[in-house]
Each structure stands twice: as structure tokens, then as C-alpha cells.
Amino acid sequence: MKVCLQTYGCQMNKLDSALVSSALTDAGFSLTQSVKEADVILINTCSVREHAEQRVISQLGHLKHIKKNKPNLVVAVIGCMAQRLGNKLLEHEAVNIVCGPTQIPQIADLLKQALEKNEKRLAVTEKILQKTSESQNQTLETFESTYGVEDKQIPSQAFVRAMRGCNNFCTYCIVPYVRGPEVCRPPEVIIEQIKKLASEGIKQVTLLGQTVNSYKYKKDGRSWCLADLLDAAAGVEGIEWLRFVTSYPSEEFFDDIMQVMAASPKVCNYLHLPAQSGSDKILRAMNRHYTAAWYLELLDKARAIVPDIAIAGDFIVGFPGETEEDFQATVDLLKKARYRNSFIFKYSPRPGTTADKKLQDTVPADIKQKRIATLLEVQEEMSGQLSRDYLGKQVKVLVEGLSKKSHINTAGDNNPQLVGRTDTDYIVVFNGPASLTGHFAKVKITKTSPLTLFAELL
Ligand code: SF4
């Protein structure tokens, strides 16, 4: 039986999809990219923004038509939207299976049953805000450590989950309502997984968590934090670069994490630290537990310990009640933070969150759009300045593969254009043999743009 797996959303979802693909292959299914050829369409969904959900709904509409001519086609929805909408989603004419993130170990069995009996099946967590039971955790652990997680698209890179869920309840965010409370994975299981990946040729591992810097685990009288985990992972032979995303601005363990970054050449000098707003009033309304001034001090501290650290930010514009003055405070913070890049989004109310229940989406769409454009402009100016510092420098990059313009040959040789990344997460484009894909290369930066560096291979 052939399965076409489509993935929306963040790195967590991509990791779940990698696990599911591996589990399905193990259970005798084969994977296909073609909807036409597939016996099963499996959609891994995201609920973080309305737009991501709308894309899935329109895809389901399309599948409803396909099913008219192919009534045995099984459509399964997994991931955050499955947990959020549950039965409502199951009522959709096209859908056979709705399976939440905690239930993905059951997916192969659910698909087999649906293919045999053509019944609708729902597998979600009823009380998602309650602590996950020990047996559920154990099932997820076994699933996670049994199946391969290497990134199929980028050779020699892999993502490893350090923790699931989130306890923070930022008022705009759906994550705690679909992924449940924070659960940290045992350190020895994570390290074992990294060792296995290294033995398979993986060179870069990214540890994942919604607030990965709050990772903590107690075992045999020893307490582990993310710094300990990075330190232990750095000891794994074959692993050359380690990254972690995403961090929440918090003092807890911050110095330890920065110290291990400064001390270990394997821990990449890159920190993704979402601020979301520069207005203290809006930060309070978002239930973010810091002020803009305190956040900027935290960045100073990071730069004092790791001088060449590259920092990336996240912002939401047009949060309920955001005035022009609040927005200017965000512009101000963005200028002072000197981010290498920022991910900027318009506020979109998510049903069930505190902001949706208690606050009105007061900022008009055109103002949100204007504010995004302003922030992007300020960020572009800053990114341009910071990337110019690389001009003439020699840097090490991990080569990801052919660039989108691989046919363009500017160097006058026969090599295609490749794309790689620095440890500070800059994209670097240069000409070189395709066989470098998945390997490290040394390049010299010859030209810069705000988000991309151009180089020649040394
Ligand atoms: S820290 Fe806040 S924004 Fe991040 S996942 Fe948790 S609730 Fe959502």
C-alpha cells in the first residue's frame, strides 16, 4: 500500500513526519510523492496560524473530489489540527482518521484498520492539559527511539527531540492546547539516539523543544539541563555541530548554556530567542514573563560570553491593543537587538487561547501589514550591516546541496552552485562539486546580501 505524506508547520512536525515515515515503511507501507498513486493520504497539520489550517481545509476539499472516483482512498489527518479539532475534523466527508500528536505510534495500525474496514477512527487526547501518563510517555519514547529521524532532505543533518509540549501559556499560542504539558526526554535516551545517528554518518544534530533552554531532567541524584545535554552530545564521536531551537527568554540555565557554547567548538554560535514585542504592556498581555529592557540585557549577557554569537528573533505584530506607541517600542527593540534575522508574523487569533477568549483582535489588517513591512525594512538594514562583516572572511560551512539556481555558473568552471550554512546559520552560496553535499567545506566570502553570503571554495 502506498502512502503520500504531506507535512505542514514547524520542525517538530517535520520530525514527527520522519518518524511516521520510518514506522510506516517498517509496517510494510511504501511512500510516494504522488497523490494519484497513493492508497493513503496522510496530512501532518499545524495549528499555529489560521493560514496553515486553511490550507489543510482546502486540501481536504480537493481530496473529497478525488474520493468520488477513488472511494477506497484513505485520508488521515495527524498533528496539531487533529488534536485541536478532533471529532469536528472527522465529520469532514474526506477524512477517515484523525490522530493527535500523542497517538502517532498507533498510526500504522489505524491505517491498516481503515484500509480493511473503511471505518472512521478518532485517536486524540481527551484531557490534553493534564500531565501525560507514564504509559503514554513510554509508548512515545519507544516509538521515538525505534524509528529513524535523519532529515531525508538535508544529508548529514538530523533533528532530535529534547522535550515535548509547553507549560508557558503565552496568551496567543495554541501549542499547550495541542501538544500538552512539558515532558523532557531522558538524557541517556537522547545521547544514545545521537550516537546512533553519528554512526550512520550524521554530522549535525539540532535538539528540538518549544522552550528547549528550559530542558531539565533528574536521574540517579544528578540534575541535567540543556548545557549538560549539549556537553554530553559534544562528546559523541562523529558529531561536529550541535544546535538547539527554540529558546524562551529566561535566566534559568542561560549562563550555563552560553558557557558551553563558548567552550565547545561543536556547539554552534547561534541563538534563536523570540522577543515577540518590545512593549512591556503587550508583553504582559501576551503573558511573556519579561520586560523589553530585561530582554536586551539578556542579549548583552549572551554577547559578553559568546562575542560572535548570531541571534535571531521572532515578533508578532498587531497583537490586540497594540498602539502605534507599542509598535514603536518593538521597532526600537529590533534596532537595539542587532538580530542576524527575524521571523515576523501578523497576530492571528487561535480559537481556545486566552487572547482569543478575552481580547478583541483590534488592529486592522492593513495596519498589521504596514507594521510587518516596517519591521522587515528595519531588519533588512540590520541584517545587511551584520552580513557585511563577513566580507573577505574564511568560514566553514556544512554543505546542504545544490542551490535553487544550481545551473548558474559564475566561476567559469564546470561546478554547479551549492548552498551551505555557517555555524552562525548564515546561508552561503558558492560553486563547487556536488559531491561536497553533506560535508564541511572552507569558503571565502566575496559578496554579501542581507540574508545570503556569496563565496568561493578554498
Ligand atoms: S513558549 Fe509560548 S509561544 Fe512558545 S510554545 Fe510555549 S506557549 Fe507557545
Written description of the protein model:
By secondary structure, the protein is an alpha/beta fold. Among the domains are: 2-123, Rossmann fold (3-Layer(aba) Sandwich), CATH 3.40.50.12160; 149-268, Transcription Regulator spoIIAA (2-Layer Sandwich), CATH 3.30.750.210; 394-457, OB fold (Dihydrolipoamide Acetyltransferase, E2P) (Beta Barrel). 37% of the residues lie in helices and 23% in strands. It is built from 15 helices and 21 strands. It has helices spanning 11-26, 50-69, 80-85, 87-90, 107-117, 134-146, 175-179, 187-199, 226-234, 254-263, 280-285, 292-305, 324-337, 354-358, 365-388; strands at 2-7, 30-31, 40-45, 74-79, 97-99, 121-123, 157-161, 163-164, 183-184, 204-208, 216-219, 222-225, 241-245, 270-272, 310-317, 341-346, 394-402, 417-421, 427-431, 440-448, 452-457. The strands form 6 sheets. It has a 6-stranded parallel β-sheet, with helices on both faces. It has a 5-stranded mixed barrel with strand order 17-18-19-21-20. Strand 5, helix 5 and strand 6 form a beta-alpha-beta unit. Helix 9 (226-234) runs parallel beside helix 10 (254-263) and helix 13 (324-337) packs parallel to helix 15. It binds iron/sulfur cluster (SF4). Iron/sulfur cluster is lined by residues 166, 168-170, 173, 175-176, 210-211, 248.
CATH class of one domain: Alpha Beta
Tell the overall outline: globular
Strand proportion: 15-25%
Q: The CATH topology of one domain, please? A: Rossmann fold
Helix content: 25-40%
Instruction: Report the sheet with the most strands, covering strand number, pairing sense and barrel closure.
Output: 6 strands, parallel
C-alpha-based Rg, rounded? 23 Å
Low-confidence stretches: none
Identify the strand order in the major beta sheet.
2-1-3-4-5-6
User: In whole angstroms, how far apart are the ends?
Assistant: 48 Å
Mean pLDDT: 94
Name the CATH superfamily classification of one domain.
Methylthiotransferase, N-terminal domain
Tally of DSSP helical segments:
15
